[in-house]
Design a protein that fits this description.
119 residues; mainly alpha
Length: 119
């Protein structure tokens, strides 16, 4: 019988740790030394990331519905490559709702297209 490689041993160790952590209850995890302080630190990190993302989005996407509509009109009318679903939705005879416009702008922002436009 051959001896398991270091990689195989490491894979087994990681799998067993994942299993142990995955099956632990919240109470067991929070009972670990320093767990509550770590949980608060992680929460602060997540809150800071969310706050930064909201701030970044508000710098790019206007607050008022009319300004968002105007921005999307400008993007759709530009020579930029944007997803066909957005171009088609906006160029159809159907009236696009403010909610749909916001969703389209969010998608363009995630794709990095609005950042390029504003820069």
């Amino acid at each position: 019988m051959t001896k398991p490689s270091s990689t195989l041993k490491l894979d087994r160790l990681i799998s067993s740790l994942e299993s142990a952590i995955g099956s632990a209850t919240d109470r067991e995890i929070l009972a670990l030394p320093g767990a509550r302080a770590d949980a608060h630190a992680v929460r602060r990190i997540i809150e800071n990331i969310v706050e930064a993302e909201i701030s970044r989005r508000s710098e790019v996407i206007p607050r008022s519905a009319s300004e968002r509509r105007r921005l999307l009109e400008m993007v759709v009318g530009s020579k930029m490559h944007i997803p066909n679903e957005i171009r088609m939705a906006y160029s159809s005879t159907k009236q696009v709702s403010d909610k749909e416009i916001s969703a389209h702008l969010e998608k363009l922002l995630r794709m990095g297209l609005l950042k390029k436009l504003k820069s």
